[in-house]
Amino acid sequence: MDERDERNEALAVEPADDFYGPDIFTEPDGDPDTLANLGPLAPMAGVWESAGGADVHPVEEGSEQNAFVERYELQPIDRQTNGPQLFYGLRYHTHIVKPGEVETFHDQVGYWLWEPATGTVTLTLGIPRGQVLLAGGTAEPDATEFEVHAAVGSEVYGILSNPFLDQKFRTLSYRMHVTIHPDDTWSYEEEGILDIPGRDEPFSHIDQNTLRRVAPPTPNPLAGATPPAGSLGIGSLRSESRIRP
């Protein structure tokens, strides 16, 4: 087994090949109410803010720490399917500035996804510096802590960067640990391990924050949809065999 295969095996939290059965085209009906089916992601739905963020990043002299102000919005999307695979999820946008400044310090978009059948949490991440990743982990439906991971070179939960970042600030691995608190807050710590030319050891780039809810989520569109008179209904419309790319 080569290094790439070992990395992929370590990150492979998806079920065995035969978990979904022989029919890979028929979609399950699912539930139109995403907010009721988010598992451990449910407490994160809504709009959140905090002025207490902390970032440790590399600079020429070594490292630098910055405080930051963050607004993190997570809104439910309609259920998603890949044949028999069913996801419920939140579309998110986090926008970060330094205290007292207007210029964006960090901007990030993506999805948090929950697959009830396998207990899998998936994070997609895209930033406007030319980098994307897909991270995954497992959790119980009522978990108040969970973690997702990704590694460069992995074909299942991996990291892709533009040529400059890949050569000069290569992200070797990524993890994000989420903790849900009982006081309508949640915290995260995320770590990217960077390989920087000229440094003897990889650099640990860490961001962390505790966010407080400032607005509730908006129900996903399908949750409020009413089938037209005479239609077959939502469940029947989705029971045909098909798969989207």
Kindly report the average pLDDT value. Answer: 89
Summing up helix and strand content along with how strands pair, one would put the structural category as: mainly beta
- What's the helix-strand series? HEEEEEEEEHEEEH
How would you describe the shape? Answer: globular
What percent of residues are in strands?
over 45%
Number of strands: 11
From the N-terminal CA to the C-terminal CA, the straight-line distance is 30 Å
Annotated CATH topology: Lipocalin
How big is the Rg?
Answer: 20 Å
Q: What is the CATH superfamily classification?
A: Calycin beta-barrel core domain
- The appropriate CATH architecture is Beta Barrel
What would CATH call the class? Mainly Beta
Q: How are the strands of the biggest sheet laid out side by side?
A: 7-9-10-11-1-2-3-4-5-6-8
Q: Give the domain tally.
A: 1
Describe this structure as you would to a colleague.
- The protein has one domain: Calycin beta-barrel core domain (Lipocalin, Beta Barrel), CATH 2.40.128.20.
- An 11-stranded antiparallel beta sheet has the order 7-9-10-11-1-2-3-4-5-6-8.
- It is 8% helix and 49% strand.
- It has 245 residues and is mainly beta.
- It is built from 3 helices and 11 strands, in the order H-E-E-E-E-E-E-E-E-H-E-E-E-H.
